[in-house]
C-alpha cells in the first residue's frame, strides 16, 4: 500500500477502536435512574441501553472482539506501512542496520501513540463525562455489530459464562439501589451545590426514621400534662391555662392508666361558650393509640396512618407510660432545626468548642451536632442522659463527667435525679474513655471498665 492508503487504514482503525472504547465505558458508566428518566421522556434509545445493561454479556463480547481485532490489524498495518519510510529517513544519517531497527521502533511508537491518544484516552474520557449521551448514540450501531458477529458472540459468551459458573463469580451486575447509595448521591449533590446543606440533612433524617426509636422524639413522662377522668371543671380550666398543649391524655387514678385523650380545641370551644367541662361526658374523650417504646419512628408513622390519628401514648414492657408522641414530633425530627422556636432548642452551641445540651436530647441528634460516628454501647440508651448513666453506672450528679472521642461531657444541672443540662466541650484529639467522680468498684464492672481512667 502507498503511504496515503496506509494512513487512511490507520485512521479507520483508530476510529473503529475509539467507537468500541466509548461504547464499553459509556454503557458501564451510564446511570440507570438517568436512563429511565430519558426513556420516560420518549427517548427509545435510552430504553435500548437499559436492556443492554440488564444483559450486557453479548454487548461486551462484541466490544472485546472489536478492540482486539483492531489492535492486531493496527500493529500489522502500522509496522508494514510506516517502517520503510522511517527507515529511509533515518538511513540518511545512520548505517542501514541501525536505521532499520530504529525505523521499526519509530513506526511502533508512532502508531501506538496515535491509538493510545485517539482510540483510548479521549474516547474513554468522553464516555465518563457524558455516559448516557454517548451510550444512546452508539447503542444502535452496537446492535448491528452484535447481529453481524452473532456466531462469535455465542461462542465466547458461552465460554465466559461457563468459566464464571465454575469460579462461583456472579454473571450479572447487582442493580439494587440501597439507602447508602441514595445518601451518597445526596452528599455529592450538596458538595456540588445542587442541594442545600439543610435539604441534604432533611433527606438523611428521612432515612433515619427506620433506625430511630420513637423514644428519641417523644415528650417524656415528667413533661406530660394530663387530666384525671374525675377532674372538676376548675382544675381542667386551670391546667389548660398553665400548660397549653394541643392534646391531653385522660387517665384514671394515675398516669399509667390512660383511658383516652381529649383535644384542646374541644375544651376551648366549651370554655369560650361558658359551658361546663366534664371528662365523663360521652364523646369528649377519644380513644387513644397506645404504642410500645421499641417501635421505630417509621412504624409509628404507619400506625398513625392506619388509625388516622396524630397522637399516641408510649408504654414500656411493664405497661408503664414513658411518654407521648405526636405527628408533629416526628415531622420535627425530619425537619430538624428548620422548624420550631429557638427557645425550644435542645442543643445550643455556646462557642466554637462547647455546646449546652438538654439531658433528654436524643443521642442521634448529639452525634450529628458533634460529628461523632458512634458512641460505646449505643443499644443501651436513647438519650444523652442515658449515655452518661451507662458510662458512669449510676445516676449522675453535678460535676460528674465523661471524656470520650475528644469531647468532655460534664453534668451541669440535675433536678430530682433528672439530668437537665450537660456541657459538652471539645478537649482535643480522640482518646481513651475517662470518667470522673466514679467509684473504682463501679468502674471494674462497667462496660468500659478496662478503658476508663478513674479520677476523684
Automatic annotation (TrEMBL):
Keywords: CBS domain, Cell inner membrane, Cell membrane, Membrane, Repeat, Transmembrane, Transmembrane helix, Transport. The keyword Amino-acid biosynthesis does not apply. InterPro entries: CBS_dom, CBS_dom_sf, CNNM, FAD-bd_PCMH-like_sf, FAD-bd_PCMH_sub2, Ion_transp-like_CBS, Transptr-assoc_dom. It is found in: Cell inner membrane. Residues 1-199 form the CNNM transmembrane domain. It holds the Pfam family CorC_HlyC. Belongs to the UPF0053 family. PaeA subfamily. This is Polyamine export protein.
Amino acid at each position: 500500500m502507498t503511504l496515503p492508503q496506509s494512513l487512511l487504514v490507520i485512521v479507520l482503525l483508530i476510529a473503529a477502536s475509539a467507537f468500541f472504547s466509548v461504547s464499553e465505558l459509556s454503557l458501564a458508566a451510564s446511570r440507570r435512574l438517568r436512563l429511565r428518566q430519558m426513556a420516560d421522556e420518549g427517548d427509545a434509545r435510552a430504553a435500548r441501553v437499559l436492556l443492554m445493561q440488564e444483559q450486557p454479556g453479548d454487548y461486551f463480547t462484541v466490544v472485546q472482539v472489536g478492540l482486539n481485532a483492531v489492535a492486531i490489524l493496527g500493529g500489522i498495518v502500522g509496522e508494514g506501512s510506516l517502517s520503510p519510510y522511517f527507515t529511509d529517513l533515518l538511513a540518511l544519517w545512520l548505517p542501514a542496520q541501525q536505521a532499520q531497527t530504529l525505523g521499526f521502533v519509530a513506526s511502533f511508537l508512532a502508531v501506538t501513540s496515535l491509538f493510545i491518544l485517539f482510540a483510548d484516552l479521549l474516547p474513554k474520557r468522553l464516555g465518563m463525562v457524558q455516559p448516557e449521551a454517548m451510550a444512546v448514540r452508539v447503542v444502535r450501531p452496537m446492535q448491528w455489530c452484535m447481529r453481524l458477529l452473532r456466531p462469535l458472540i455465542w461462542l465466547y459468551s458461552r465460554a465466559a459464562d461457563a468459566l464464571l459458573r465454575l469460579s462461583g463469580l456472579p454473571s450479572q451486575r447487582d442493580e439494587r439501589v440501597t439507602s447508602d447509595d441514595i445518601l451518597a448521591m445526596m452528599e455529592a449533590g450538596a458538595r456540588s451545590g445542587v442541594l442545600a446543606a439543610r435539604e441534604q440533612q432533611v433527606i438523611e433524617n428521612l432515612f433515619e426514621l427506620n433506625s430511630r426509636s420513637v423514644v428519641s422524639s417523644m415528650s417524656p413522662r415528667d413533661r406530660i400534662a394530663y387530666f384525671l377522668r374525675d377532674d372538676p371543671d376548675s382544675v381542667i380550666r386551670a391546667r389548660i391555662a398553665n400548660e397549653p398543649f394541643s392534646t391531653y391524655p385522660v387517665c384514671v387514678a394515675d398516669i399509667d392508666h390512660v383511658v383516652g385523650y381529649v383535644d384542646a380545641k374541644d375544651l376551648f370551644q366549651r370554655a369560650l361558650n361558658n359551658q361546663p367541662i366534664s371528662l365523663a361526658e360521652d364523646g369528649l374523650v377519644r380513644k387513644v393509640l397506645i404504642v410500645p417504646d421499641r417501635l421505630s419512628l417509621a412504624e409509628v408513622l404507619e400506625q398513625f396512618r392506619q388509625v388516622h390519628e396524630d397522637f399516641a401514648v408510649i408504654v414500656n414492657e411493664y405497661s408503664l407510660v414513658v411518654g407521648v408522641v405526636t405527628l408533629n414530633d416526628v415531622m420535627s425530627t425530619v425537619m430538624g432545626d428548620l422548624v420550631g422556636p429557638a427557645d425550644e432548642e435542645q442543643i445550643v452551641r455556646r462557642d466554637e468548642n462547647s455546646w449546652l445540651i438538654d439531658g433528654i436530647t436524643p443521642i442521634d441528634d448529639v452525634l450529628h451536632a458533634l460529628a461523632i460516628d458512634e458512641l460505646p454501647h449505643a443499644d443501651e440508651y436513647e438519650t444523652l442522659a442515658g449515655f452518661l448513666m451507662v458510662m458512669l453506672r449510676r445516676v449522675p450528679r453535678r460535676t460528674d463527667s465523661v471524656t470520650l472521642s475528644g469531647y468532655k461531657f460534664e453534668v451541669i444541672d440535675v433536678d430530682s435525679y433528672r439530668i437537665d443540662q450537660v456541657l459538652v466541650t471539645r478537649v482535643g484529639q480522640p482518646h481513651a474513655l475517662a470518667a470522673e467522680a466514679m467509684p473504682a468498684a463501679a468502674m471494674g464492672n462497667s462496660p468500659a471498665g478496662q478503658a476508663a481512667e478513674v479520677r476523684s
